[in-house]
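in:
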């Protein structure tokens, strides 16, 4: 049974290109579709079931018509991770389960007016659950509101999704040491900074973290236009790659 993860978005809330910005990365993204970055998200396919990991893409409903996916799995309730749910909730037909952290406020009026979305599937840190046979373990992250990353496991593969976060809590690092992922997709919004930024990762922090975790394939996501400019002139160390929209991770 193969596990496939398609990165449907690899940008932050600001996206690339940034409105009004004339930097080299934003200019390039306007000219070449392949360099655009939509809100950070993925589609995970396992056992012929599709899980949409975060829902920040505004035109989500056009890409994923009714019946093309089984559930949403949310990291947190910031707008750039949930805005696609706002029009979709007013759809008709079967209820769609939404798995995510027990954040009581959610986003705007989503919980008060859920429409066809079922937000009752809250998950707990380090308590594994299954989605059509895919094993999922919520991992606490460091962010400005309650946020979970997820370890996704099949019989032969293990991928960690770690966004949005600035570094990782010790408990999450310990868990990843005990359950080493073959690949991890991690928040690296910023080029190397002297200090870890408050809500998102920078390259220095991510490299220091992976010296402990030792994951062989580190995929950087939630990338800002400034980091894209930095990446134009600076190579990444071996084992690290910058994500791009449409990137596919195919595991066994
Ligand atoms: Zn975000
Ligand atoms: Zn720019
Ligand atoms: Zn966020």
């Amino acid at each position: 049974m193969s596990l496939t993860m398609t990165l449907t978005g690899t940008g932050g809330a600001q996206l690339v290109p940034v409105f009004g910005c004339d930097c080299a990365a934003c200019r390039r993204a306007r000219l070449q579709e392949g360099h655009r970055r939509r809100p950070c998200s993925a589609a995970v396919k396992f056992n012929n079931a599709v899980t949409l990991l975060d829902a920040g893409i505004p035109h989500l409903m056009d890409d994923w018509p009714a019946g093309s996916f089984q559930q949403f799995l949310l990291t947190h309730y910031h707008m750039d991770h949930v805005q696609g749910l706002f029009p979709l909730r007013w759809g008709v037909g079967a209820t769609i389960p939404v798995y995510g952290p027990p954040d009581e406020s959610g986003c705007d009026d989503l919980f008060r007016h859920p429409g066809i979305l079922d937000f009752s599937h809250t998950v707990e840190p380090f308590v594994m659950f299954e989605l059509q046979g895919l094993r999922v373990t919520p991992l606490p992250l460091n962010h400005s509101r309650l946020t979970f990353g997820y370890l996704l496991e099949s019989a032969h593969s293990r991928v960690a999704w770690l966004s949005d976060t600035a570094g990782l809590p010790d408990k999450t690092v310990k868990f990843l040491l005990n359950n080493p992922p073959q690949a991890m997709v991690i928040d690296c919004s910023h080029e190397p900074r002297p200090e870890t930024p408050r809500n998102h990762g920078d390259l220095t922090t991510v490299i220091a973290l992976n010296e402990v975790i030792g994951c062989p394939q580190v995929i950087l996501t939630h990338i800002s236009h400034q980091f894209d400019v930095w990446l134009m002139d600076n190579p990444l160390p071996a084992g690290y790659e910058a994500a791009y929209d449409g990137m596919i991770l195919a595991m066994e």
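note: The longest helix spans residues 203-213.
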